[in-house]
Structure formats: C-alpha cells, structure tokens
Amino acid sequence: MWLGLLLLSGEASGQGYSFIKYLPAQGLSQSQVTCLMQDGTGYLWVGTAAGGLNRYDGHGFISYRWSDGLKAAFIRTLAEYGGTLYAGTRNGLFRRNGERFEAIPSPPGRGPLDIYDLTVSPDSELIVSTAGGLFCLQDGRLIEDQRGRLLPRGSVHEAVFSGRNELWVVGRDWDSGAYWFGYIRGLTFNPVTLPRDMVVESILPDPAGGLWVGARDGLHHTEGRALRPVSPEVPWLRQPISALYHSPDGTLWTGSWQAVASVENGKPKILDTTTGFPRVRVRAILEDREGNLFFGTDGEGLLQLPPQPFSSFAVSPLKDYAAMDTVVDRHGRRWVATFGQGLWYVDGDQAYQVGADYGQALLDCTALLLNEDGTLWVGTNTGGLFQVGLESPVSITPIPEVGVSSILDLLEADGRRFVANDEGLFVFEGGTWSRYGIDEGLPSHYPTHLEPCSDGTLWVGTYDQGLFRWDPGTREVVERLSPDDGLPGPTVTSILETRDGNLYIGTYQGLVRRRGRNIEVIGKRDGLPDETVNFITSEPDTRRLWIGTNRGIAQQVEGGWRTFTHRQGLPDDETNTDAACWDAQGRLWVGTIHGFAVLVRRPPPVNPVPPPVVIENVWEHDRAIDPRLENLEFEHNQNRVRFRFAGLSYVDPSRVRYRYRLAGLEDAEWTETAQNEVSFAALEAGAYTFEVVACNNDGLWSEVPARFSFVIHPPFWATWWARTLEVGLILLLGAIIYTVRMSRVIRQKRWLEQQVEDRTHALKKEKERSEQLLLNILPAPIAGELLERGVAAPRLYSEVTILFTDFQDFTRLCADLSPQELVQELNELFAVFDDICRVHRLEKLKTIGDAFMAASGLPVKNLHHARDAVEAALEMQEYLDDRCQTPGKKPFQLRIGLHSGPVVAGVIGKWKFAYDIWGDAVNTAARMEALGKAGRINISRSTYERVREYFICESRGHVAVEGKGTLEMFFVKARRSGQFPGQHQQPL
Prior knowledge:
Elements: H1 2-9, E1 15-16, E2 20-22, E3 33-38, E4 44-48, E5 53-56, E6 61-64, E7 75-81, E8 84-89, E9 92-97, E10 100-103, E11 115-120, E12 126-130, E13 133-138, E14 141-144, E15 155-161, E16 167-172, E17 179-185, E18 188-191, E19 200-205, E20 211-215, E21 218-223, E22 226-229, E23 241-246, E24 252-256, E25 260-264, E26 267-271, E27 282-287, E28 293-297, E29 302-305, E30 310-313, E31 322-328, E32 334-339, E33 342-347, E34 350-354, E35 365-370, E36 375-380, E37 385-389, E38 395-399, E39 407-413, E40 416-421, E41 424-429, E42 432-436, E43 447-452, E44 458-462, E45 467-471, E46 476-481, E47 492-497, E48 503-507, E49 510-515, E50 518-522, E51 533-538, E52 545-549, E53 552-557, E54 560-564, E55 575-582, E56 588-592, E57 595-599, E58 613-620, E59 623-625, E60 632-634, E61 641-647, E62 657-663, E63 671-673, E64 677-680, E65 686-695, E66 706-712, H2 720-777, H3 780-789, E67 795-808, H4 810-813, H5 819-839, E68 842-848, E69 851-856, H6 865-884, E70 893-908, E71 914-918, H7 920-930, E72 937-940, H8 941-947, ...
Parallel strand pairs: 60-66, 70-72
Antiparallel strand pairs: 1-30, 2-29, 3-4, 4-5, 5-6, 7-8, 8-9, 9-10, 11-12, 12-13, 13-14, 15-16, 16-17, 17-18, 19-20, 20-21, 21-22, 23-24, 24-25, 25-26, 27-28, 28-29, 30-57, 31-32, 32-33, 33-34, 35-36, 36-37, 37-38, 39-40, 40-41, 41-42, 43-44, 44-45, 45-46, 47-48, 48-49, 49-50, 51-52, 52-53, ...
C-alpha cells in the first residue's frame, strides 16, 4: 500500500510520524494488546491480555467480556472462518453470534483448552494450536487433528501454511521447555534445527519461499532444514522480534521489544523513538484496507499510523518547539526560528542553538529573512531585529533602528528590505532606514503581513484596519480594503495575490477571495476546517492553495477542500501565523505549535477505499432490536425508531460523513450529516426502509447502502374492515339524523329569516340615529367625508371670519344659582346663539364655560362670511338687550370680537371627534373679544374692510395687543340703510 511505500521512501533522518494512540482513556478495555484483525465487514478487532475483546468502528470501542458470553479476559488470537469471528483464549475457543459469544466445546474428557493460534488452511479448515496439541474445528466442535500425532510431544504455539502447502509448526516440549520447529509434508514432520536455548515468538510464511522466524535473538529465515539470522550486522534485527506481518503490498514488518521495522532487500526501515514510536514491545501488526497500520503493544495500547503525506521534522530537540519560520542557507544548513527556544540551525542530524548569549531578547523568534547579501535577519517578539552573519564563526548583531517591538514579518523586494512591527512599517534602502505610520499617511501603526505585487507595489495587512496597497516609490497608499468594503474582520494574518488575478486574504473570520470588486468569504461551511486563517500559500507548479488554520491544513481541490490534521502527519493541528514555505525540492514546510511538518508526498495520495457502512444498533423506543433481522413488523404505537450506524473508515473518522433516508416517508430525501445516529418519531402506518451510505475523509462515497426494513401496522380501527363497518354505521346514523334535523332546519330557517329582517330594520334605524348624532357634532360635509372614508383631511381656508363671545361678570351674576340652574341658563343662551348661527350660516365650533366660538366661511366657502358674522353678532346683542328687559332674567352683557383671515380646519381626536380651527386668525379674534367692551362688537381692520359698506363702524384707533404690538380696531354701531337681517348672498 502507498503508506508502506511512503515509509520506505521517506527521508531516514529528521522525519517523524504522528501515531494515534488508543488507551483505556479512549475506550480500549486494556493497554496490553495481544492480537489484531479486520473482519469482512470492516470492523477492527483488538484482543487484550486482561480486558477481553474490543471492536472498533472509528467512533469508539465496544468491549466484549464475561457478561457477553466471552468467558475469558486473555485473548491470544483471532480468525474469521466461514464469515464468523472466532477468538482463541486461555479459556478455550469462542464464536461470535450476534452481539454475544458462545463457547466451542472441547473434546470429551478435556477441559477448556489454552489456545495459542488460529489458522485457516488452504482447503478452508480451521486449525487450532493449543497448549495440549493441534486441533481442528469440525461440526462446531474441537477434535484432535491427525497431523498433531506427527509432531514432537509438547504444546503447539503457532501453525501456518506456506505457499508449498506445507504446514509449519512451532512448539515447546512439555518436559524440557525447549522449542522445536519444522513443517509437515504429507505424513512426515520435517524438523528444522534451532539454536540452543532459542525462544521463538512468531513465524510467518515467506511468499518467495521458506519462513520468517521472529525470536528473542532477532529475525531469522529458513534455508532448507537450517535457520539462519537475517542481516546479523544490523542491530535492530538482532533485537527480540515479537511480531511478524506481511502487508498487502508484500512488505515485511517486524515488531520488536523497542521498535517496528520494515525490511526491503535486506535493509531495515526503522520506526523508533526518533520517529515518534514509543519504546515498547510490539505484539501484533495489521494493515487495514485503507493502508492504516495498527500496532498492538504491551503497555502503550493500540497505535495507529494512518497514511501520512506529512512528516514531522523530528531532529531533536526541535520537534517539540513552536516553529515560526525556516530557511536554508547556501551552505545547506536549515535555519529554524522557534518561539520560546530561540534560533537554531540544523546540519545533518544535529541541531545547534544560536544566540543563547542574548537570552530573552533572542528567545522568541518570529520571522526569518535570508538576504541577497548572504546575511540572515531574525525578527523576534521582544528583542527587535537581529542580523546573523552565516560565515563561520556565526555572528549576531542587533539592528536598533527598528526598536525592540514585536517583528511580525520580513520581506526583501526590488532592492528594499521591509520590516513590519508594532511601531509601523520600516524600510531599509540604500543603507538608510525610514519609518512609516499613521503620521506618514498609512492607515495603521500595526502591520502584520507583507506581500509584494507584480506592479512593484506592496500589500500590507494590518491588525486593526484591514489591508492596503502601498507604493514604496511614491510613499502613497494606492488602495484600501477594510470591513466597510466587505472584509469579515479588521485583522489580516496573510495575503496572497495569484497570477489569475485573485487576491486571497487570511483573517480570523475566514478566507477572503477578491476578484475585481467582488469579495467572497470562505469558511467552515465551504469545507475549511476552521475560520482562523494563519497562512496562505500556493503550490509552485499547480498554484493550488494551501490554507493553515487552528484545526489543520486545507488543500484546494476540485470542488472544495481536503483537510490534513495530526492523523495525516502534522505534529499538531494548530499552525502558526505566516509559517509556511516551499523548498527547492518542492516540499511544503509548515510551522505548528509543536514543530515543523514537511509535505513529503506531492500530490498527497487520496484515500481510494469507500467505507463500508453498517447499521450497528436499532431501537424501537428504548427496546434494542437486532439490526440483522429483516422485515420486522411493529404495532401502530411502536412508531418511534432510532438507528446508530458507522462508516468503517479509520484514516480520519472525524471526517466521515453520512447520507441517510427513510424510504416510505412522503419526503424521503437523502440527508447529509456528520452524526452517526438518527431517530424518527410518530411514524404513520406503512412500510419503511432505512438506508444509509458513508464517505471517507477524501469524499469517496460507498456505493451500496446499509438497509433495515420494517412495517408499522395500522390500529384496528384503521383497518379496511373496521373502516367499512364504520362507513355503514355512519351512513345509517346519518340518514336518521338527516330526517330529524331537516324539519328542525326548516323551522330554524324561518325563524332566522324573521330575525334577520328585524335586525336589519333595527340596524337601519340605529345607523340613521348615529349619522344624525354625528351631524350634530360635525359639519355635514365633514361628517359625510368621515363616514365615507373613515378620516377627514384637514383643509386650509383663506377667507374665514371667526367670532368669539364672552359674558361680562358672568361668574358674579350667577353666584347665587345652583349648578342645575347655571347649566339651564347657559343652555337657554347658547341655544339662541346656535339658532342665530344657523340662520347666518356660521359654523358653531365650541363653547368653553360661558364663552362661545363660531366661524363663518367654512366648511362651505362664503363670499360674505364677514358680513354674515357681523350680522349674527348684532342679533346676539339685540337678543340679550331684549332679554334684559324681561323680569326675572339676569342682566347679562356680552363682549363680541371678530377677525377675518386664513385658518386650518379639521377633525381631531380618536374616540370623541371635535371639529376645530387653528391659525393666527383665531388668536387675533380671541384678542378682539378680550379687548372689547360689554354690549359692543369689536372687529379688526381685516373684518372692517369687508363690512364697512354694510355697517356703520366707529374707529377705536390702534390698541396695544399682547404678543402682537398694536392692532387697529372698530366698534360696529349699526346697519347701514338698506341692510337688514336675513338678506344674504348665495355662497360660492
């Protein structure tokens, strides 16, 4: 498989791999793993030394122990035979039956056998190696294998078939404890001589012929009847070999008590502590269908090595430090900037720290710049900028011109060197330093990233103002992009301008792509693992983007993004800001918080195996149901069904996705989810089939869905015969009810018709009363508009005469009257005033206490509004003069004021309507009344001009009026000759 090829072809020095460890904290029942197997379904089975058997589906482990029928804690070996899983234990052989295990009976007279190994022969026979000899499975029982009688006396530890149909067997003499070894051909056992005191741990057929033998003294190979060590000069192959395994591509893997090695052409490739593998005994090795390597260890649990296109830069001690930047000088030395452990260079397999004498100042390195003059600039977090001379001996010189603020980026372009730090943008040109900030026209003091443009300008990302394009020649800002222009946030972490005209911007809220004026934000919903973008880079040849985030690296692929995490070789998922570069060999170097990762396979191979998907559990309400059952039948109230399923992909289970549907529902569409459990409630009667498919970490979907079918029966009252009976009863009952109700309906109809007629007549009367009442409140035109439209719009009247009246000493004259007598007196007076207004076409507006207000010329316009108003005023005075002559009547005297001018009239109020007027003319009319005299009619100049040909008036001159200065006023004395009450012109 390609993972094995990767491990064989990768660099031997300076590289490490990310192993996934499963311990009891991750659900494994015990940390001592004894055997591994992947069954035909795709499950991974893990046997332990004291924790029983575990099944792994990518989501978690399920443990099988005593309560599940597996009456043994020590699982020595596993095999799939006839589609059934068998487990060999210290306490006998067990067979899986659903979610339980059942014991296989031992031969008569024997107790449970101590089983060492299970092997399936070429003619499909299960061979069982035990402490009591060689057995086979026949008709569900263990019987003694006839070939066992050919073997030396003792326990059989392992038996395997070679390509020549030879049965190789290793065992141990019961009495002496010495190991014996050989093969059975026909009816003859052919022993192979073992070195004295040799302890055999494992045997494995060699496809090229012979047998591999792992022993305490190293790896051996058979040659005829002799056993010879393999590469005795190689120290790793002289270690105790505890496990042997052939991967599907033919690679031989050996597990020792300290490491794992693969052998190709006699040369070992080692996975040990220098590459991330723990110093532990390996007892089992397995490569699954996807190329994942699994190692069962004695104390470190289960280790997984997924296919890893990335390798960690494992030169000690740099593999554990936060990597910020790296460059290679002309001497071939790799310089590494770390945060917390300073500056290093790597020469061969050794790493050397530089500048330790500077202490804290050079401890937190942030950026490197290899200059064309052969020097190295080193940016730091608290010590400013340093220049490193690379010739021996290495020299370090601080550059004080940029201060000691945090250096965020370094760049050399067009003969200039640029430094971005917390105090602005510094430019080194012609041996001179210049600083640029807000005072020099830049939008921000805090540049974070520098990116040269093809036209010679410079993109500058900032912490607080987005980014801008700056011309180093003219020192002017050419262009700006901020949140106001569509950026999701003000902080820019990285910038990349591609040849096709796209500008990519990294922010804390996602990746931004700008083309022309269009801005698009790409985030988790589009396939990125996280929206905090730490770096953007592109492949040198294909120009595909690589995006670093806090949760892995995303590679741009057709139709979306591929994600790489620690499972693909990264030392940590969290990348560092702007910590990515491509070397001369086309490898991508990525800085993470725990060292560098190197892309050693380009393009990264795609997982080619679609995951098999299984329905693991089914529940009806809380009742567990065997998912292997078919066409189950449920009652109508058993209508809540829950499913748990798994896509058996182990490269990166967190990226497995599912599509499911419940065929039989009206809207049975496929639904995509990352969850592996779904429930359906309140299902109606019908036939249903639940279907689910899964895709692996690279988006390859399984073709055949897992299915579970069931039927929900309707309740008895919903069956066809119950419904037929119901229909008959309903029809009979309906006929009876119809007959009875029809007579009642006819009577009711007649009664309702009479009620409608009576109510209609009453409503008509009520409507007439309401309209009449409204006419008593509002002018007829206004009332009509209000009834028709619901509202009455305000109107401007340019020619109106307003009349105000007030009784002189009214309160004193009425002091001896009761409230009832007072109201009766006012009602008598105002009733006469109302009649006078109606005769002379004045619109009564309101009364306030003993004051009376009316207007002439609205709501119907009137050319003689002033004359009509004065005529009405004269009649009011004449009525009061006559009334005073009546015995017993109060001697009321009336002040009347009139003024002509424009007003605005309209209806106010929500519940109790009032028709009123507003304007300066109203205020002036009120002043005319207030400044008049009892028994006299006081008019303004504007009214006088309109009535002087009809009435004899007496000038009062100019009278001081509060708030208006002086106004000319007149008293109306009498009508001119030929004028008399009731003589009116027709209104306009």
